[in-house]
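Structure first, sequence second, as always.
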């Protein structure tokens, strides 16, 4: 029947796709819960957390699309590491040097480099961290 969707044949949404479909305010809110406002500010490229609060409330957005994509990527990473570890460990992973990232910290890469350049390496590093400590 035209216009009817067979829900049994629809694949479940992967966590990464869910993050891409979320409203930015919800992405930021979850990131603040996991990483804290100051870390989210660093990823978002701002100096103070009042802008992060504005993002959480939907009053404003980061200044460019790349920053938004990095916030979404950060939430994907936090969820990957957070499947196995508490928020304290997730925060430590974001701040710590990682040998798969040439001894750079994930948060530094998110702050400094373009999204397209860092996405794959960060996802590999997060998954490897979870598997190596299992």
């Amino acid at each position: 029947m035209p216009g009817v969707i067979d829900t049994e044949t629809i694949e479940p949404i992967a966590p990464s796709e869910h993050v891409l479909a979320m409203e930015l305010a919800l992405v930021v809110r979850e990131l603040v819960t996991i990483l804290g406002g100051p870390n989210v500010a660093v990823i978002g490229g701002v100096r103070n957390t009042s802008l992060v609060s504005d993002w959480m409330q939907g009053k404003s957005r980061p200044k460019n699309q790349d920053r938004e994509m990095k916030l979404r990527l950060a939430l994907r990473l936090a969820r990957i590491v957070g499947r196995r570890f508490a928020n304290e460990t997730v925060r430590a992973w974001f701040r710590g040097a990682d040998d798969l990232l040439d001894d750079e910290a994930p948060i530094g890469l998110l702050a400094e480099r373009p999204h397209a350049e860092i996405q794959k390496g960060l996802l590999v590093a997060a998954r490897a961290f979870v598997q190596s400590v299992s």
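Margin note: The CA atoms of residues 62 and 68 lie 6 Å apart.
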